[in-house]
Every structure is written in structure tokens, then in C-alpha cells.
Specification:
Two copies of one chain form a homodimer.
Chain A (H helix, E strand, L loop, with lengths): L11 H14 L8 E2 L1 H8 L3 H14 L3 E2 L5 E2 L5 H25 L2 H19 L4 H17 L4 H18 L6 H19 L3 H25 L2
Antiparallel strand pairs in A: 1-3, 2-3
Helix pairs in contact in A: 1-3, 4-7, 4-9, 5-6, 5-8, 7-9, 8-9
Chain A binds a DNA duplex (30 and 30 nucleotides) through helix 3.
Organism (chains A, B): Halomonas citrativorans
Keywords (chains A, B): DNA-binding, Transcription, Transcription regulation
GO molecular function (chains A, B): DNA binding; DNA-binding transcription factor activity
Amino acid sequence: MNQYIQPSTTTASSRIYDILRKDLVNGRFAAGEKLAINALKELYQVGLSPLREALNKLAAYGLLIQENQRGFRVPTLSRSELDDIVKTRLALEGMAFEQAISLGDAAWEANLLAAEHRLKCADMTLDNDDEWERLHTQFHRTLVASCGSIWSLRFIEQLHDQFDRYRRLGPKMPVIRQELDQQHHELVALALKRDVKAARKLLDEHILKSYEAALTCFAQHG
Amino acid sequence: MNQYIQPSTTTASSRIYDILRKDLVNGRFAAGEKLAINALKELYQVGLSPLREALNKLAAYGLLIQENQRGFRVPTLSRSELDDIVKTRLALEGMAFEQAISLGDAAWEANLLAAEHRLKCADMTLDNDDEWERLHTQFHRTLVASCGSIWSLRFIEQLHDQFDRYRRLGPKMPVIRQELDQQHHELVALALKRDVKAARKLLDEHILKSYEAALTCFAQHG
DNA sequence: ATAAGTGATAAAATCGATTATTTTTCAGGA
DNA sequence: TCCTGAAAAATAATCGATTTTATCACTTAT
């Protein structure tokens, strides 16, 4: 494992960080909203110091905006930023996937099959969205895990969180969702066949299709 | 300006963040070293709360490693990580530069010429390394500034900081330095000519040459 | 009617002290 | 001599209170 991953025993600060990160990605707070620190303190039943440390980390990570003497705000959403996120994902994730296919060993293949299977199982049980989201994130992480670039993986994860802020706002789209699920399967198949070209092409399509889905969040909301 | 930039009035936390970030990039603390928070408190004459907030942000940014209940450490340096940083820079910065040349307007051209000129002036006065570093960073930031992708710019800046941790450890190399300075001038010339292909090629060479210089930090140290 | 000032209120940032955890030290036993 | 584990010391994390800064409602002057 690499030195940039944190765990070991857990602190109030890291716990609240994980929770807030998830809540921010899930759109629990409105875009542009100012976070009232004292309210958060009550809401999450946590002290001021660990809370502020978590908020500071989230701001450095890009899930919050920090303005000196004015606390923290949720970043606004815009079509142009979504476009940027998607373009950057296409480039970074595409390269990483190609590398991952070239470099991936048997353990990676096994992880990939396992991640796909777990995701498929979660697809069946229609409730428990949270769990599906977790497995979906894990699946995409596994796709590129063997690319060999710690920094690319880091950036890709950050972009996924940003992208998901948009995607999870939109309405459920069973048709698109089904197509995306189908692509998950095909991505694994192409990856295992080491068909770099075709896999890359399909990943691009996959990202663009989910972009399509994410775009609908503007139709509904602002 | 974009919402991810912070300024306005300044707090103890943001002040100490800027200082620590610079000191970390400059190698003031040894790689792998554990930071004694109380010592930092004395050293920078700052309270515990703002200091911890700054450290948390730096950890999220990648200039520190945070381990629960064990405080903060300076990330170690390794050949393989440097390779990763350089490869990722080549990809991200290369794309961004191509875009920047395509999209840059007259204001960008003016900024570019200004940044180059300031850097050249700093080249003359051999003392004041800090100022040169600042202008050098600013020059490279300007090169890609008009690429249109907030997220790429963000990642590129992060990678520059990481790269500079290595570069600034090595010995001064006047010959390579002179070649790099020459390339700065040529990069501007090609960018203004909108010669995307040649500019991209030169930027790649530029990054690889500074990689060469950064590599020497391993010859000296570990 | 608008703009600039003023005081009250709310909120953010910071401090000093306390609590929890890790690390070190050292005595006792194999 | 080398473990082992308990006590002591050091350090990280957190809390509660204080200070500083922004915000809002209101007054006064242009």
C-alpha cells in the first residue's frame, strides 16, 4: 500500500470527514449553501475542533469552498464545470485504464471480477442505494487500480467525487442505468482480453453516457 | 476568477498554511520526518488550532502524511514516485498547454510575455532564490492558464509542488539551468506562433530535462 | 431616497486546558 | 542478554471558553 492512505485507529476528525464527504457527494447540502458550523456540530454530534479540521480537509480536497473569516460553503454547480470534470476524467481515466490493462496481473483480474460480481448483485436488490454507490465507486477504482500511477489514481478519485455530486442530483434513469450496467460487464471482458483499444473506447462511451445522465440534473434543478 | 481560490482577509490558519507549504516544498523538513506539533508551534509562533488546521489541509493536498493518533509526517521521496509525478505532469501539462495555445487570447499572450520577462530579470540577479522560484512557478502557471480546465490547473499545480520537493533538493546545476532558461524563451515564442505541435514537443523536453536535474537529488542524498 | 456611519448580534477563529493515545522507560523474569 | 509488561512521560486529539471579525438593523447626514 502507499503512504498516502491514512487509516489505523480512528479519530473524531477522520470519522466526521468520511461522513461529511459522503453527505456532500450525495447532495445532502444544497449547492452554494453556507454551512453553519454550530448547526453541523449539533447535527453530527461532534466537537468544534475535529469538525473544523474535517472541513479544512474537505476544502483542500475540493468539496468545500473556504473563505477566510466567512467559514465554509458548498461549491455551486455549473454546466461548464461538469464539462470540465468530464473532459478531465476522459483524459486521466482513459490513460489510466490503458495502463492498468497493460500492467494488471492476475490479482488485479481477480479483483476486477469480484468487484463486477458484487456490483451486479447489488443491482438486483433495488433498495440500498448507498451500498450500490459504494460498490460502483469501488468497481471503477478497481478498473484503473493497476495503472501504476499513485497520482493519477488520486486525481481520478477526486474527479469521481466531483462528478457524483452532479450525477446523484438527477432523477433515476432506469434505461440509462441498465445500459451503464451492461457496459460494466463489457469493460471487464475487454480488460481481461487485454484489448486496450476497444476497452479505452468503451470507457470513453461509458463516461459520456453517465455524463448524459448527470446533465439531467440541470433540467430538474437550476 | 474561480470559486476555488481562497483569499480575502487573512487568518492565522491560512498564513501558516502558506508558510508551511513553501517550507515543505523547499525541503526545510527532512523527508520521512515526523513533525512535532509543539515544536512547530514555537517555531512559527502560532496557536495549536490554526496550526492543526493548516496541517490538515496540507495532508489533504499531499504535502503531508496524516496518521490517526500519530500526527503528521513529511512524505518520503522515491525514484518511482518521481517517475510517476513526471509522467503525470507530461500528460496533464502537455494537454493543458495545447489547449492553452488554442484558446489563449491577447490578455494571455501579454501575461505570458510579462511572466517570461520577470523571470529573465530574476535570472540576472543570482541571489534571491526564493523570488526566482516564485516567478518560475508563476511562469509555468501562465503557460497553461488559458487551457480552460480548472481541474487540470489544480492538479498541475499540485504536481509542481510535488516535483519541486525533489528538484530543490539537488545541487545547483548552472549548465542545465541555462538550458532550461533558454527553453522558457522558446516556449513563449512557439506559443505565440500558435505552433501547438512544436510547443508541446518542447514542453515535453523541458519537463524531461528538469527531471534529469531532479534525479540528481538521489545521487547526493538517499 | 440613498449612502455612510454606529451599535447590537451572530458567527468564525483562536486560545488554554483537559483527555485519550502512543511511546518510552525500566524493573523483573526467562 | 533478551524478552515482557506495567508505569511514566510525551504527544495527539479534543473540549469549553474567549477573542476577533462579519453581518444586520437602525440612525443620521447628504
